[in-house]
Specification:
Elements: H1 3-18, H2 20-24, H3 27-46, H4 51-74, H5 80-94, H6 108-111, H7 116-139, H8 152-158, H9 166-178, H10 184-191, H11 211-227, H12 232-243
Helix pairs in contact: 1-4, 3-4, 9-11
Keywords: Hydrolase
EC number: 3.6.1.66
GO molecular function: ITP diphosphatase activity
Length: about 250
Amino acid sequence: MSEAVGRLVAVVDALRQHCPWTRALTHEELTEYLVEEAYEALEAIESGAPEAELRGELGDVLFQVVLHAAIADGRGAFSLDDVAETITAKMLRRNPHVFTPDGRLRPPEELASVTVEQIERQWERIKAEEKRALAADERGGTAGSTDDAADPAQSVFAELPAHLPALAAAAKAVDRAARRDPDPLVAERSAAAAPTPGEPGAAAADPLADETALGAHLFELAARARRAGLDPERALRRHLAVRAGRVG
């Protein structure tokens, strides 16, 4: 741990010990601040804010991480070191094109022999394997069977964070599906020869018939945007910022 990060941890520990307000905070009470700080960092990035402003916003996000870890450490659950070890182990597992199974960097000739598309598909495959293994552990069975096989398209959506903004969630679902072979959303659309308004995988004939139809239409629009290389969430966010006069 660097001296600067160690100092931040010490400050948070002191606040937890001597500040009644900070000491009383829980994970649940901090959720709104975590989301707020993340969006402020996002705004700094998208608005082209000065580097000093972005540095400050990222510091606010880091403070949230350290504070959550301190709360967990206080009840003996896990520490900031545990958080760092967990994400490090995850990156080593998810990037076998860079690291060997024992965590060493692969030789240069191996590092140059993989494409971005292969990396993305590899990430999704390893992630799915981890989820199957975790589910098997929870069931006390084997990792060979999974409910995802019954409806591959549904599994893409089931993995999304529940609180992700709707347009961002739709775009992420399309991205994740595209990394699978075959793409379950493409297969779903191909199977819907005569779609019924509001059915999954098909836009309604009248997108304004009701909210179900509108939802299907918005998803199809988001899917088309992602396949064209556009980010629908960022596009709408920028449009609103322009209308509000925050960006030119």
